[in-house]
Design brief:
GO terms for molecular function: DNA-binding transcription factor activity; transcription cis-regulatory region binding. The structure is a single chain. By secondary structure, this protein is mostly helical. It has a domain at 55-182: Tetracycline Repressor, domain 2 (Orthogonal Bundle). It has nine helices and no strands. The chain is elongated.
Protein backbone atom coordinates (compact mmCIF):
# COMPACT_ATOMS: atom_id res chain seq x y z
CA UNK A 1 0.00 0.00 0.00
CA UNK A 2 2.71 2.49 1.01
CA UNK A 3 4.76 1.46 -2.01
CA UNK A 4 1.83 2.40 -4.27
CA UNK A 5 1.51 5.79 -2.56
CA UNK A 6 5.22 6.47 -3.06
CA UNK A 7 5.05 5.45 -6.74
CA UNK A 8 1.99 7.60 -7.39
CA UNK A 9 3.42 10.65 -5.63
CA UNK A 10 6.72 10.36 -7.53
CA UNK A 11 4.95 9.99 -10.88
CA UNK A 12 2.54 12.83 -10.11
CA UNK A 13 5.37 15.09 -8.99
CA UNK A 14 7.09 14.54 -12.33
CA UNK A 15 3.89 14.98 -14.36
CA UNK A 16 2.73 18.07 -12.48
CA UNK A 17 6.18 19.68 -12.81
CA UNK A 18 6.42 18.95 -16.53
CA UNK A 19 2.83 19.48 -17.67
CA UNK A 20 1.06 21.31 -14.87
CA UNK A 21 -1.88 20.05 -12.85
CA UNK A 22 -4.55 20.64 -15.50
CA UNK A 23 -2.69 18.91 -18.33
CA UNK A 24 -1.42 15.96 -16.31
CA UNK A 25 -3.29 12.79 -17.29
CA UNK A 26 -4.15 10.44 -14.46
CA UNK A 27 -4.45 7.53 -16.91
CA UNK A 28 -0.91 8.16 -18.19
CA UNK A 29 0.41 8.66 -14.69
CA UNK A 30 -1.04 5.44 -13.29
CA UNK A 31 -0.03 3.43 -16.38
CA UNK A 32 3.53 4.75 -16.07
CA UNK A 33 3.88 3.17 -12.62
CA UNK A 34 1.92 0.03 -13.47
CA UNK A 35 -1.14 0.85 -11.36
CA UNK A 36 -4.80 1.51 -12.07
CA UNK A 37 -6.89 4.60 -11.48
CA UNK A 38 -8.47 2.59 -8.68
CA UNK A 39 -5.14 2.66 -6.82
CA UNK A 40 -5.03 6.44 -7.22
CA UNK A 41 -8.57 6.84 -5.92
CA UNK A 42 -7.99 4.40 -3.09
CA UNK A 43 -4.88 6.25 -1.90
CA UNK A 44 -5.76 9.88 -2.61
CA UNK A 45 -9.47 10.13 -3.36
CA UNK A 46 -8.95 11.97 -6.63
CA UNK A 47 -6.48 14.04 -8.65
CA UNK A 48 -6.84 16.94 -6.23
CA UNK A 49 -5.93 14.66 -3.31
CA UNK A 50 -2.86 13.50 -5.20
CA UNK A 51 -1.83 17.12 -5.80
CA UNK A 52 -2.28 17.82 -2.09
CA UNK A 53 0.09 14.94 -1.27
CA UNK A 54 2.68 16.19 -3.78
CA UNK A 55 2.42 19.78 -2.51
CA UNK A 56 2.77 18.55 1.07
CA UNK A 57 5.91 16.60 0.15
CA UNK A 58 7.56 19.51 -1.68
CA UNK A 59 6.49 22.14 0.86
CA UNK A 60 7.86 19.97 3.68
CA UNK A 61 11.15 19.65 1.78
CA UNK A 62 11.22 23.43 1.31
CA UNK A 63 10.71 24.03 5.03
CA UNK A 64 13.44 21.54 5.87
CA UNK A 65 15.89 23.21 3.46
CA UNK A 66 15.06 26.65 4.82
CA UNK A 67 15.54 25.41 8.38
CA UNK A 68 18.94 23.90 7.50
CA UNK A 69 20.02 27.19 5.93
CA UNK A 70 18.77 29.10 8.97
CA UNK A 71 20.65 26.79 11.33
CA UNK A 72 23.93 27.63 9.59
CA UNK A 73 23.37 31.38 10.05
CA UNK A 74 24.88 31.49 13.52
CA UNK A 75 22.13 32.89 15.73
CA UNK A 76 18.34 32.92 15.94
CA UNK A 77 17.91 36.37 14.40
CA UNK A 78 20.17 35.74 11.40
CA UNK A 79 18.62 32.28 11.11
CA UNK A 80 15.14 33.74 10.96
CA UNK A 81 16.19 36.10 8.16
CA UNK A 82 18.07 33.33 6.32
CA UNK A 83 15.08 30.98 6.49
CA UNK A 84 12.76 33.62 5.07
CA UNK A 85 15.20 34.49 2.28
CA UNK A 86 15.73 30.81 1.48
CA UNK A 87 11.99 30.17 1.23
CA UNK A 88 11.60 33.18 -1.06
CA UNK A 89 14.54 32.07 -3.21
CA UNK A 90 13.04 28.61 -3.68
CA UNK A 91 10.42 30.31 -5.86
CA UNK A 92 13.09 30.26 -8.59
CA UNK A 93 12.94 26.45 -8.72
CA UNK A 94 10.66 25.50 -11.66
CA UNK A 95 9.15 22.52 -9.79
CA UNK A 96 8.36 24.68 -6.75
CA UNK A 97 6.98 27.44 -8.95
CA UNK A 98 4.61 25.30 -10.91
CA UNK A 99 3.43 22.82 -8.29
CA UNK A 100 3.55 24.66 -4.96
CA UNK A 101 3.21 28.32 -5.88
CA UNK A 102 1.02 28.31 -8.98
CA UNK A 103 -1.06 25.12 -9.21
CA UNK A 104 -1.20 24.50 -5.44
CA UNK A 105 -3.07 27.69 -4.50
CA UNK A 106 -5.23 27.55 -7.64
CA UNK A 107 -6.44 24.02 -6.84
CA UNK A 108 -6.01 23.64 -3.07
CA UNK A 109 -6.76 27.17 -1.91
CA UNK A 110 -5.00 29.33 0.67
CA UNK A 111 -1.48 27.99 1.29
CA UNK A 112 -1.47 29.29 4.86
CA UNK A 113 -4.08 26.61 5.60
CA UNK A 114 -2.02 23.72 4.24
CA UNK A 115 -0.90 21.20 6.89
CA UNK A 116 2.75 21.57 5.83
CA UNK A 117 2.63 25.28 6.64
CA UNK A 118 1.62 24.57 10.23
CA UNK A 119 4.97 23.05 11.26
CA UNK A 120 6.84 25.90 9.59
CA UNK A 121 4.68 28.41 11.44
CA UNK A 122 5.32 26.72 14.78
CA UNK A 123 9.09 26.71 14.24
CA UNK A 124 9.02 30.42 13.40
CA UNK A 125 6.87 31.12 16.46
CA UNK A 126 9.34 29.28 18.72
CA UNK A 127 12.27 31.25 17.32
CA UNK A 128 10.41 34.51 17.83
CA UNK A 129 9.55 33.52 21.40
CA UNK A 130 13.25 32.87 22.14
CA UNK A 131 14.21 36.22 20.64
CA UNK A 132 11.54 38.02 22.69
CA UNK A 133 12.73 36.34 25.91
CA UNK A 134 16.29 37.47 25.13
CA UNK A 135 15.07 41.01 24.54
CA UNK A 136 16.19 41.03 20.92
CA UNK A 137 12.63 41.53 19.67
CA UNK A 138 9.86 43.80 20.85
CA UNK A 139 7.42 42.07 23.20
CA UNK A 140 4.78 41.38 20.55
CA UNK A 141 2.48 38.41 20.21
CA UNK A 142 4.78 35.65 18.94
CA UNK A 143 2.12 33.85 16.94
CA UNK A 144 1.00 37.04 15.22
CA UNK A 145 4.60 37.92 14.36
CA UNK A 146 5.26 34.39 13.07
CA UNK A 147 2.14 34.44 10.90
CA UNK A 148 3.07 37.84 9.47
CA UNK A 149 6.67 36.86 8.71
CA UNK A 150 5.66 33.52 7.20
CA UNK A 151 2.96 35.27 5.21
CA UNK A 152 5.45 37.83 3.93
CA UNK A 153 7.85 35.10 2.77
CA UNK A 154 5.05 33.09 1.18
CA UNK A 155 3.59 36.10 -0.62
CA UNK A 156 7.01 37.13 -1.86
CA UNK A 157 7.50 33.59 -3.23
CA UNK A 158 4.05 33.70 -4.87
CA UNK A 159 4.90 37.07 -6.44
CA UNK A 160 8.20 35.77 -7.81
CA UNK A 161 6.60 32.59 -9.17
CA UNK A 162 3.90 34.55 -10.98
CA UNK A 163 6.21 36.97 -12.79
CA UNK A 164 8.18 36.60 -15.97
CA UNK A 165 11.17 38.31 -14.26
CA UNK A 166 11.79 36.21 -11.12
CA UNK A 167 15.55 36.86 -11.01
CA UNK A 168 14.91 40.63 -11.03
CA UNK A 169 12.37 40.45 -8.22
CA UNK A 170 14.25 38.12 -5.88
CA UNK A 171 16.70 40.67 -4.42
CA UNK A 172 13.93 43.24 -4.02
CA UNK A 173 11.71 40.73 -2.24
CA UNK A 174 14.45 39.57 0.14
CA UNK A 175 15.44 43.16 0.93
CA UNK A 176 11.84 44.07 1.73
CA UNK A 177 11.41 40.90 3.84
CA UNK A 178 14.50 41.80 5.88
CA UNK A 179 13.24 45.37 6.36
CA UNK A 180 9.83 44.14 7.52
CA UNK A 181 11.41 41.68 9.94
CA UNK A 182 13.75 44.37 11.27
CA UNK A 183 10.67 46.25 12.44
CA UNK A 184 10.37 43.61 15.17
CA UNK A 185 13.83 44.37 16.57
CA UNK A 186 13.89 45.84 20.05
CA UNK A 187 16.04 48.91 19.53
CA UNK A 188 15.58 50.10 23.11
CA UNK A 189 17.33 47.05 24.59
Amino acid sequence: MEENRVKLIAAARKAFAEKGYAAASMDELTAEVGLTRGALYHNFGDKRGLLAAVVDQIDTEMASRAKEIGARAGDDWQGLLAEGAAYIEMALDPEVQRIVLLDGPAVLGDPSQWPSQSSCLQATRQTIERLIVRGALKPVDAEAAARLLNGAALNAALWIAATDRPQDLLPRAVEAFDALAAGLLNTSA
